[in-house]
Amino acid sequence: MKSGGSEVMERVGVLVVAYGSREAAMIDALSRSERYSVEIYVADRHQNPFNVEKAKEHIVIHDLNVEKICEFTKKHRKDIDFGIVGPEGPIIEGVRDIIEKEMHIPMICPTKEYAIEKSKVMQRRLFEEVIPEVNPRFKVFDPAEYSSVVDVKNDLWKWLDDLNNQVVIKPDTVSTGKGVGVWGDHFKDRKELYEHFLSNYTHGPVIVEEKIEGEESSFQAFCDGKHLVPLPETRDNKRAFEDDQGPNTGGMGSYKDVGNYLPFMTQKEWETEVNIANRLFERLKDHGSNPGLRGIPFYLAFMHTGRGVKILENNSRPGDPEIQNLLPLLKDDFVDLCLRIVDGTLDRVHFENQASVVIYKVPPTYGGKMKEFSGDCRVDLSEVYRLSKNNEEQMRVYPGALESRAGEIYALTSRAVCVVGIDENLESARETSLKGIDAIKGGSLWFRRDIAAKQHIEKSIQHMKRLRH
Question: 310: part of which helix (H) or strand (E)?
Fold first, then answer.
C-alpha cells in the first residue's frame, strides 16, 4: 500500500535461535527483505556482533537451554510471527514442540520426533528400510546388548575381518562430524581403531560401517510439510588442513557451482539424490502432509562412488557452512519464503545462477593446529566490512564464534568468521572470498587456502572419472 508517495511495508517479527555464522546468514537474508519491515529477536549462544547489530532484541544463552529460549520467546510472543532455528541442539530437545504448544508461534524446524539426526542408528535403520540400495553395510554395537567388553571386541574383530578393516566408526549421538573415525586417516591399525571405538562406546551405541571411496556432496531441501523443494548442491570441506588432511571439523569452507550440481557430479547423480530425498520424505510424510517436517528436515551427506550414490548421514537443520553458499543467492524474498513454509504453500525456490565460495577463518587451537594459545584474541573486521560494502552483490561477511566486549571483537574457540564470495564462476567467487579473508586481521586466525581451488576441484573430477570407469 502507498502512503504520501512512499510504500508502507508490513511489519513481521521473527525469532532466530542462533549459534554461529549460519544464523548470521539467516539474519542477513531476513533483514534484506524488500517487502517486509522485519524485527528480529535473537536467542544467541554468545554476543555475536552482527546479530546484536541487526536484532530488535538480543539475548545470550550460552548453552542454548530450551527453557530459557522459551522464556525469551514468551516475553515477546505478541511481536513474533514465526521462529527459525539453526543449531541442532534445541531442535533435538524439542524447542519447536514447546513454543508451538504454549505460545502458538509457528516454528521453522522439525519437531523433536522428526529430528532424526539425534540418532545415527535410527538413521541407518530408516535408510535400510526405505533406500537399502544406497545404504553402506553397517553393524550397530550397543552396550545394552553386550555383557562384557571381551564379547564386543570379539564381535568387532569379526566385523573388521568381513570388511577387511576398511571401516568408519560413528557414535550414535550428534558429534558434528568430530566423533567420526576413518580407517587410514584417523587410525592405522586395530589398536588405534579400538581406542577410538571405546572412546565412543563408553557413551552409548556405536556404528561401524564400511568405508566408501568417492567424493562427498551436501544436499539440502526446504520443506513445508506438503512439498519438498531441493536446493542446489554444495561441497563441504570438513578436514582441518589443506589437501583434506587432519581431523574432521564442523567445516572449513564450502562451494556451490553455477547450476544445481557440482563439477564432479553428473545430471543423473543429481536426479538420484532428489529421488532419494523424496523417498525419505514420502516415508516420513505418510499421507498427504506432515507439518512436523517443516524446515530443512533433509540435509543429506552423499558419497559419489564407482557403484553409484551412497548415503552417509542426514541432518535435520541447515548446513553450516553450506547454507551460507545459498542464502545470498536467493531470488525470493526470504521472509516471504519462510511465510510460505509456515502456510504449506512452498512449491519452488529461485536462485541466481551463480557460483559461491565460503571460507572460514578459525582460531589457533581449532582443528588441533595448536594445543594452546595465550595470545591476543582481538579481531579487526573493519577492512573486510569496507570491502563487502563496496562489493555488496559479490561478498558477504558472517561472524560466527566472535564476541563483542566493550567495543572490541574477540575470537572464541570455534569457527570465528566466514566470507562468502559470489560470481559467475567458481574461480572468481573464490578470489573474492580470499580477498575478504585476507582483510580480516588479528586473533592469529588461520584458514584453508585450497577451498574451491582449481586443482582441488580437478582432483575430485579425475577421481570420479577413475571410479566410474
Answer: strand 308-315
Exposure string over 410-432, b if 16+ CB within 10 A, otherwise e: bbbebbbbbbbbbbeebebbbeb
CATH no., domain 137-210: 3.30.1490.20
**Is residue 50 a contact partner of residue 31, using CB atoms and an 8 Å limit?**
no
| 356-409: pLDDT as tens digits | 999 999 999 999 999 999 999 999 999 999 999 999 899 999 999 999 999 999
C-beta of residue 49 within 8 angstroms of C-beta of residue 408: no
Among 420, 424, 421, CA closest to 432? 421
Tens digit of pLDDT for each residue in 217-274? 999 999 999 999 999 999 999 999 999 999 889 999 999 999 999 999 999 999 999 9
Do 108 and 338 form a contact (C-beta atoms < 8 A)?
yes
Q: Which three cell numbers stand for residue 45?
A: 549462544
User: What is the fold of 10-111?
Assistant: Rossmann fold (3.40.50)
Q: Please tell me the pTM assigned to this model.
A: 0.95
Asked if residues 397 and 388 have their Cβ atoms less than 8 Å apart, the reply is yes
Using CA atoms, how far apart are residues 56 and 46, in angstroms rounded to an integer? 16
Nearest CA among 293, 175, 164 for reference residue 223: 293
Q: Which residues belong to CATH 3.40.50.20 in the chain?
A: 10-111
Contact criterion met (CB below 8 Å) for 14 and 29: no
- Going from the C-alpha of 424 to that of each of 25, 62, 104, 431, the distances in angstroms are 21, 39, 43, 12
Give the residue range(s) of CATH 3.30.1490.20 domains in the chain: 137-210
For residue 81, what is the DSSP state? S
Cell 525469532 appears where?
15
Q: What's the N-to-C CA distance of the chain in angstroms? A: 60
Phi, psi for 139 (deg, rounded to 5): -140, 135
Question: Phi, psi (5° rounding) for residue 351?
Answer: -125, 150
| Cβ count near 458 (within 10 Å) | 12
23: helix, strand or coil = helix
